[in-house]
Hints:
Number of domains: 1
Radius of gyration: 19 Å
Mean pLDDT: 90
Distance between the termini: 44 Å
Shape: globular
Structural class: mainly alpha
Strand content: under 5%
Order of helices and strands: HEEHHHHHHHHHHH
Low-confidence stretches: none
Largest sheet: 2 strands, antiparallel
Helix content: 55-70%
Strand order of the largest sheet: 1-2
Amino acid sequence: MTSVLRRAAAAVVAGVVTSVVRGVFDGQAPGGQAQWTRTNHRGEPVSLLEGPSVAAGLLVGGLVGASSARAGAALTVATAAGSAFGLADDLGEDAGDRRKGLRGHLGALAHGRVTTGGLKVLGIGAGALVAAALATPGHGPDGTRRSAVGWLGDVGSSGALIASSANLVNLLDLRPGRALKAVGIVAAPLALGPGAGAGAAAAVLGASGSAIDQDLAEADMLGDGGANAIGATLGTALVLSAPRSVRLAVLAVVVGLTVASEKVSFTKVIERTPVLRDLDAWGRRPADTPVDWSA
């Protein structure tokens, strides 16, 4: 299969699997629909079932679009870890626990308390390191064996990029369509580029495209299970495609945004910036428009 056909197939398969799995969940949600229902920013009910549906699409589409067995294994590990530990936080979070963000969960871990958020940090971090190890070749382009120090350095920085990407997409999942638009903007040039992660980026576009209508309609949301999965997939696509200098630059940006999120509201920044505000609002119903649940 040529590279172009593989990318197209990855996008189509990811979109179809996402749609089919979401339809199956409509008829029979694991544990019942109530377990997956949350209240959104308007105080209205919204379903988290988009998350596992998107994760399923990414897993299958990522394998279809993988350029090698090594790339497929890295994508599977990263996506599965993001989805599994994100879902654990979605479904097992203690509503009375006020700890939020990386600082809150890491602080709890430092005091010997493992929250579902802390478990997610550890689990996604471990999965990201394994994915990075799988994605990082032990030999240079000329076939010579790399030094252990150089290989470990690349694995560490790439693992940090995958894990921090998973977290950043989750931080954006606060308004309908916001996270899916953001990953689409990043994934599009990757899917069109020459790198080994192009198929994974195409799968991100396919799964996002399948889910965005329901997300914008405020019927579904990614939740941690979907946002962490799609962020981890996109981070792995970057690791597979980008040279070290680009990976390190992206890692610095992602970490900077994550640190800033502890003090600054992304929503307030977006609302104060005309271009970002218009993009964020595109396709979304106005703030004062209720959903017609009888339709």
